[in-house]
Specification:
It is an enzyme of class 2 (transferase). Its EC number is 2.7.7.9. It catalyses: alpha-D-glucose 1-phosphate + UTP + H(+) = UDP-alpha-D-glucose + diphosphate. With 492 residues, this protein is α/β, with parallel strands linked by helices. 26% of the residues lie in helices and 26% in strands. It is built from 13 helices and 26 strands. The longest helix is centred in the first third of the chain and has 23 residues.
Length: 492
């Protein structure tokens, strides 16, 4: 840095610290205590943000991971299971990332409370899976939810309904960081409140915050005191992320000095996954490479399916004692993701975030396992929702599995237009979910509705132009068809 840049950087930090202190002065004593811990993490991130300029990786140093560092799932599964799997389960904790809202699907409140199958929400399915595991193996696997200030209150109210089940549920809150003005690099918040003029002033800083929040909350120490050794972390909207006993056994069966501290489940890339983070070898470490870190000139290369064949599912198995060790030494090194946003009033802000998988390079004995695609079933859009609500999947004890009646294991490619974005609009347009067992590709655009017991096979494209409407009649069977024009079916 030049002397001028260094002075400017110092001035930004001084100004930021003064603003944060002024914000803390507006909080109650108890709130200020929690927020001070949050702000310590934020100051650290802000300091590093001011230091780092340009992409955080040198493209020339990127190598493919060595063969042995990413094991095929079949090899792990081939080892079978021990007689006493209960002992392994009792060392495990399931952690679900539950900080997101359902706004992208047109829903208010936490995303985990959206109904996805037979009136079951994401949270219902998660709790049912773990209860089934505990009952089947007479085990005691707890569930931990990492909430955000956006989801905590609503989630806690709902948790009461699970109190009679055989699952212990803990929650902790991830940090609350201030959004900063892109020009002044100062917080836009006027006080510590989250309502009124401050509604858009705060954000949860990505799931990489799990390590610090988990430690700060005291929940991590409590679980270590119970003798827990590993956490299985995943996004709550990934319906494929169930506890895999073979991977758990693989973790537990290593000698004490060769224990894996971090396992990332990866799966083969398809055209739909070109933006997903991938594992690379970088300076003798496994490292997660996200699209945001890639120099512009190399983005197309990053997206290619030939050079980077796998991507991160964000299903992670991490050693609890190792998290504690790295946090105590303050040696968790996570790359910063700078996320620019434009607020409703047109103000440009930036959010500084981190990703949970980026910590892989800080752990000893890290590895990837190339798992079947079925372990990655995220529901991000109404197109995904259509798949998981359909007869492509069957539901058993909270777990979704591909129907045995489907002849090939790939999921169809579904693209629903903007009329289907919001969940309530989506549900209004289907009298019931079509039979999709033999579907390969579905594209729907415009004002389209589906009657009862419709069957879709092969490639089906339905396009209603602006001003037109298409009602697919009840009982229709469409196989390799393009439907366009105008078709209204009205009750007589």
């Amino acid at each position: 840095m030049t002397e001028f840049e260094e002075k400017l950087r110092r001035q930004h930090e001084v100004s930021m610290h003064q603003e944060l202190e002024a914000l803390l002065a507006t909080a109650s004593k108890a709130e200020a205590e929690v927020s001070r811990k949050d702000f310590d993490g934020f100051k650290n991130l802000f300091h590093r943000f001011l230091q780092v300029k340009g992409p955080s990786v040198d493209w020339a140093k990127i190598n493919r991971p060595p063969e042995e560092s990413i094991q095929p799932y079949e090899k792990i599964k081939g080892k079978g299971l021990p007689e006493n799997i209960t002992a392994c389960l009792n060392k495990l904790v399931v952690v679900k990332l539950n900080g997101g809202l359902g706004t992208s699907m047109g829903c208010k409140g936490p995303k985990s409370l959206i109904s996805v199958r037979n009136e079951n929400t994401f949270l219902d399915l998660t709790v049912r899976q773990i209860e089934h595991l505990n009952k089947t193996y007479d085990a005691d696997v707890p569930l931990v939810l990492m909430n955000s200030f956006n989801t905590d209150e609503d989630t806690r109210k709902i948790l009461q309904k699970y109190s009679h089940l055989q699952v212990k549920i803990h929650t902790f809150n991830q940090s609350r960081y201030p959004r900063i003005n892109k020009e002044s690099l100062l917080p836009i918040a006027k006080s510590m409140g989250v309502n009124g003029e401050n509604t858009e002033a705060w954000y949860p800083p990505g799931h990489g915050d799990i390590y610090a929040s988990f430690c700060n909350s005291g929940v991590l120490d409590k679980l270590l005191a119970e003798g827990r050794e590993y956490i299985f972390v995943s996004n709550i909207d990934n319906l494929g992320a169930t506890v895999d006993l073979y991977i758990l056994h693989h973790l537990m069966s290593q000698p004490a000095d060769k224990r894996y501290e971090f396992i990332m489940e990866v799966t083969d890339k398809t055209r739909a996954d070109v933006k997903g983070g991938t594992l690379i070898q970088y300076e003798d470490h496994l490292r997660l490479l996200e699209i945001a870190q890639v120099p512009k000139a190399h983005v197309d290369e990053f997206k290619s399916v030939t050079k980077f064949k796998i991507f991160n599912t964000n299903n992670l198995w991490i050693s609890l004692p190792a998290i504690k060790r790295l946090q105590d030494k303050n040696s968790m090194d996570l790359e910063i993701i700078v996320n620019p946003k434009t607020l409703d009033g047109g103000l440009n802000v930036i959010q500084l975030e981190t990703a949970v998988g980026a910590a892989i390079k800080s752990f000893k004995n890290a590895m990837g396992i190339n798992v079947p695609r079925s372990r990655f079933l995220p529901v991000k859009t109404s197109s995904d929702l259509l798949l998981v609500m359909s007869n492509l999947y069957s539901l058993d004890a909270g777990s979704l599995t591909m129907s045995k009646k489907r002849e090939f294991p790939t999921t169809p490619h579904v693209k629903l237009g903007s009329s289907f974005t919001k969940v309530q609009d989506f549900l209004r347009r289907f009298e019931n979910i079509p039979d999709m067992l033999e579907l390969d590709h579905l594209t729907v655009s415009g004002d389209v509705t589906f009657g009862k017991n419709v069957s879709l096979k092969g490639t089906v494209i339905i396009i209603a132009n602006h001003g037109d409407r298409i009602d697919i009649p009840a009982g229709a069977m469409l196989e390799n068809k393009i439907v366009s024009g105008n078709l209204r079916i009205l009750d007589h």
